[in-house]
Amino acid sequence: MENQPMDVITAINTRRSIRRYTEEAISEEDLHTILTAGLSAPSATNRRPIHIIVIRKKETLQLLSAINSHGKMIEKAPVCLVVAADRNAQPVKELYLNDGSAVIENILVAVNGIGLGAVWIGVYHFASWYNELLRITALPENLIPVGLIAMGHPDEKKVTGDRYDPTKVHQEIF
Ligand SMILES: Cc1cc2nc3c(=O)[nH]c(=O)nc-3n(C[C@H](O)[C@H](O)[C@H](O)COP(=O)(O)O)c2cc1C
Questions:
Q1: How far is the CA of 121 from the centre of ligand 1 (A)?
Q2: Candidate from 64, 111, 119, 156 with most ligand 1 atoms within 8 A of CB, to mutate
Q3: pLDDT per residue over 59-92, tens digit each?
Q4: Model-level pTM greater than 0.90?
Q5: Which residues, other chains included, contact 112 with Cβ-Cβ below 8 Å and sequence gap of 6+?
Q6: What is the pLDDT of residues 95-118, one digit of tens each?
Q7: How far is residue 161's CA from residue 154's CA, in Å, rounded to a whole number?
Q8: Which domains does the chain have, with CATH numbers?
Q9: How confident is the model at residue 125 (pLDDT cuts 50, 70, 90)?
Q10: Which of 147, 121, 165 minimizes the C-alpha distance to 38?
């Protein structure tokens, strides 16, 4: 880690989706920090069903970007993570999707907190590329992809501002 990590509130509030990356690799130390943050997420009944596939091979990154028009940034990312839930460990779909989403958000915040950039790429089970994703990642039948995360050293800056919205906050009843 080159710089000191941000304080947690700054890391959360300044996180934005970063879709352009320099060619610089992500260090093993940073990757370890990011993966640790992901796996530190809460988990329903602490079943911890989430697995993370780290993809760095250029040809795999190209394959993943080619199958999803919303995931074109994967091609230029030095790392793409596939977050998948083991439904043998947590059979309740709502819960394993929540667990996976918590892992993804922890990762996005950690990435921003150490000065890198990332974007969450959604996985839709009805998408035409879903089976291709399963094939590329060799996920067994019980592992359900929850989301992908493309990440790298940012090559774009996003304006960040206060997103507090009083119309979204309700006291006691809606
Ligand atoms: C479930 C989910 C799926 C997403 N899928 C994609 C995607 O496929 N491609 C993409 O470029 N961004 C994707 N995003 C990122 C959103 O577009 C982004 O979070 C939103 O525009 C708000 O911008 P911000 O992340 O900079 O705050 C996804 C975000 C979430 C939460």
A1: 6
A2: 119
A3: 999 999 999 999 999 999 999 999 999 999 999 9
A4: yes
A5: 6, 11, 14, 15, 16, 118
A6: 999 999 999 999 999 999 999 999
A7: 18
A8: 18-155 (3.40.109.10)
A9: confident
A10: 147
